[in-house]
Amino acid sequence: MKALSIFAAVAALCVALPAHAADYTAKLSLDVQEGNPKYVAAEGFAKKVAEATNGSVEIKLFANGLLGGETESAEGMRLGSVEMGIITSSVFASWIPEVQVLDLPFLFRNDEHVVASNALLTDRLKDKFEAQGFHLLGFSINGARQPMSTFPIEKPEDVKGKKMRVLQSPIHIALWNQMGANPVAIPAAEVYNSMQTGVVDYFDNTATNYLTFKFYEVAPHYTDLRHIYAIGAWVVSKTWWDNLPAESQEAISAAAIEAQRDLPPMQAKVDAQSLAEAVKNGATIHEVADKEAWRSLMRPVWDEFIPKIPDAQQTIEAIEAIQ
Q1: Which of 81, 91, 94, 41 has its CA nearest to residue 63?
Q2: Cα-to-chain-centroid distance, residue 62
Q3: What angle do helix axes 312-320 and 111-131 make, rounded to 10 degrees?
Q4: Bridge-based pairing state of the strands 134-149 and 57-62
Q5: pLDDT above 70: percentage of residues in the chain
Q6: Domains recognised in the chain with CATH numbers
Q7: pLDDT tens-digit map of 39-98
Q8: In whole angstroms, what is the distance from residue 108 CA to residue 231 CA?
Q9: How far, in Å, CA of 142 to CA of 70, rounded?
Q10: Whole-prediction pTM value?
């Protein structure tokens, strides 16, 4: 019975595919749970690929970081132990410094602007990814980063002197230093405990995670700022990709574009539901009346990092020109 239970658990992680053996199989790494919009989009992607290739290409989904964290999964693609992943763009910064431009505050106007920038960004960055052992299928929205705190945040001065958990990223650290906060780089898995014990006073994350990880319990104040978008890069091991027939590559590329297009409205719906549920559990949502005040104070971060990021100015101008 125990063996059967283990088999069932493993099978549940994978997308059901035709009974005959596939010619090409890929493990797709995800850091989210089953049911998360990113997982659902990846599930649809895998099914479309199976259908378009008549079962010749099989994509198995591994959720909850089962194949390792995002950095480990990206490294696995370079080593050949993982074939695919939807991984936060900033993870690739050490290999592809050009992606750092996506973390500049207020680069994107809204969700629609991110979606409209996908083709441009994919075209500009695909060769950089290829050179580092990745084939880039495109980008999608993981959600907008929002401040979550033990105190109300509505104006820039509200964060002065406060301890903030940040990503281990030079841009994120510089950004909150610029705002007068005291940034502390802490791994994602330690955020809840760090808030609970008072190591930090606030952090930023996405709306869906606010509910899923019960962050509202330790950060009852949520601010709708959308200062940075969390962008997911859909990547494939270049070694695995290069072994595929051209028609399979075309099928995978088409399915990825469709899935990336389907994800934002699904993400927006789940975000809204998550916030509503968090409010029922005692959270307070704060709207920002003057985003320009935040934008102008964060602008020096652009001045500091644009000269350090290859091709940043050209990429920014191209993104800003998109209507």
Answers
A1: 41
A2: 16
A3: 150
A4: unpaired
A5: 94
A6: 12-320 (3.40.190.170)
A7: 999 999 999 999 999 999 999 999 988 998 889 999 999 999 999 999 999 899 999 999
A8: 11
A9: 13
A10: 0.87
Q: Do residues 61 and 28 make contact, with C-beta atoms less than 8 angstroms apart?
A: yes
| CB distance 77 to 86 below 8 Å | no
Tokens at 189, concatenated: 């898995």
Summarize pLDDT for 226-268 with one digit per residue, the tens: 999 999 999 999 999 999 999 999 999 999 999 999 999 999 9
For 57, the 3-state DSSP assignment is strand
Tokens encoding 5: 């239970």
**How is residue 319 written in tokens?**
């993104």
CA triplet 6, 11, 15: central angle to 5 degrees? 165
**Residue 9: half-sphere exposure toward Cβ, Cα within 13 Å:** 8
Give the C-alpha separation, 283 to 105, whole Å.
25
Helix (H, G, I), strand (E, B) or coil at 19: coil
Name the one residue in this structure whose structure tokens are 């104006």. 155
The total of other beta-carbon atoms located within 10 Å of residue 289's CB is 9
Find, among 290, 300, 315, the residue nearest to 105 by Cα: 300
Q: What is d(CA 179, CA 176) in angstroms, rounded to the nearest whole number?
A: 5
- Read off the pLDDT band of 274 (50, 70, 90): very high
Residues in the chain, how many? 323
Query: 21: burial class by Cβ within 10 Å (0-12, 13-18, 19+)?
Result: exposed
pLDDT bucket at 21, cuts 50 / 70 / 90: confident
